[in-house]
Amino acid sequence: MWLTCLTLLKGWSERQGLDISDPYIYSEKVINGPSFQAIWNGWKENLAAGFYGITSNGVKRGGLYRLQDEGAPTQEMVIYRFVKVILSLGV
């Protein structure tokens, strides 16, 4: 079985015009190819849909998690990040 798979894959990149050593040209060809576009269009549809929640067999499962204060110092973390960005800008 593995031998059959390897035989089918042998020369695949040449047949698809992807036997290119430049990663930028290779990426452009892959991204604009029909295989990737089919996958990407499916992803775009899923990303456009609102978050529904955790499901089981398509049925939303509620009450799995409760929002609660975990004690993380979020305000301090935001201030720290802000100061770090400002300092990196040299302001």
Mean pLDDT: 80
**Class computed from helices, strands and strand pairing:** mainly alpha
The geometry reads as flat
Radius of gyration: 24 Å
- Number of separate strands: 2
Relative strand content = under 5%
Question: Main sheet: which strands, in order across?
Answer: 1-2
Termini separation (Å)?
A: 62 Å
Largest sheet: 2 strands, antiparallel
Give the ordered list of helices and strands: HHHHEEH
Helical percentage: 55-70%
Q: Catalogue the unreliable spans.
A: none
SS element count, helices? 5
List keywords for this structure.
91 residues, mainly alpha, two-stranded antiparallel ribbon
SSE layout and pairing:
Blueprint: H1 2-9, H2 12-15, H3 23-31, H4 34-48, E1 55-56, E2 59-60, H5 74-89
Overview of this protein structure:
With 91 residues, the chain is mainly α. It has a domain of 50 residues. The chain has 5 helices and 2 strands. The radius of gyration is 24 Å and the shape is flat. It starts with a helix and ends with a helix.
